[in-house]
Predict the structure.
Amino acid sequence: MALCRGAGLLLRTLLPGNPLLFPAACRTQSSVSGVLVPWTSLTSPPWPEQMPPVCEVEDARRQAAVVSTVNGSIERQDYGRLFAVVHFASRQWKVTGEDLILIENHVEAGCGETIRMEKVLLVGAEDFTLVGRPLLGRDLVRVEATVIEKTESWPKVHMRFWKRHRYQRKMIIVQPQTVLRINSIELAPRLS
Amino acid sequence: MVFLSLSCWIRSRGPDRYWKIQEIVKNAKHFRGRKNRCYSLAVKAVRRAFVYATKGRRLKKRYMRTLWISRIAAASREHGMKYPVLMHNLTKSSVQLNRRVISDMAITEPRSFLSLAKVARARQQEGFRAALGDGKEPVGVFSRVVLLQ
């Protein structure tokens, strides 16, 4: 008893960093076996342990059913109001029929001319959505708009001022603006 | 008696003082206190207002983006996903919608947002399957890990 206590003390002084000799981490008999490590957020991976099995036949069947339903409703033209996400003038706009868009720059078309917006990212109706990766085809969607008004913005003041340095600069910024009215969004039949 | 040199003593000391003052004070008409009337106080207040407007135009872009991100995060958590997972998987599926449009769709077009969340979830599962694989080593590789299992 004394011998083993002395040996233990000796070993502790010789190797103070050995965690197995620290009494707090060492249990001779316990119900939990194995390496005792506290449970942290990195103990188990963040995804669920069991992945759902992949059945390719069923997936293909479901996809074919969805595509045929959407094709049918497009051919019958019974989808109601369509909305589209269009990339125009370096911005993305969520657009429906008959709505107005204010663009903060000059558009190369005269007043009253019709414009077709070609970069369509997404088209949606009440029952289906067509998501482009990243764009939808030109023969699939047609978004038409008319140029209504070409004006200038109200004069914005750009002022810089440093206190105690006698520095101030004032500039008036007037930007050209264009107002577009979206006439219609049309879907062509035939999806693959 | 005729006073001929009286007319030589009349000077015109800047005929447009009123309009120069009005140019600045008209920008301060909706301010509180004497700075909406008195020129010396109005000059300082108007200068601060213009500088704050200039700085605010740059900050507005940052605030709007934060707002869109928090809205998308809230909407994706309703569908059991987190914001970084959703955006990362959408970019991996080459869907290049920006945060403004996705947050508008989360508010006004909930079903389309759900379809985007499903696209992201499917891409996430594909990524996990590709990463975890069958649990077997690739052909031609021999390692102790597989032997010991």
The first helix of chain B runs from residue 17 to 25. Chain B has six helices and no strands.
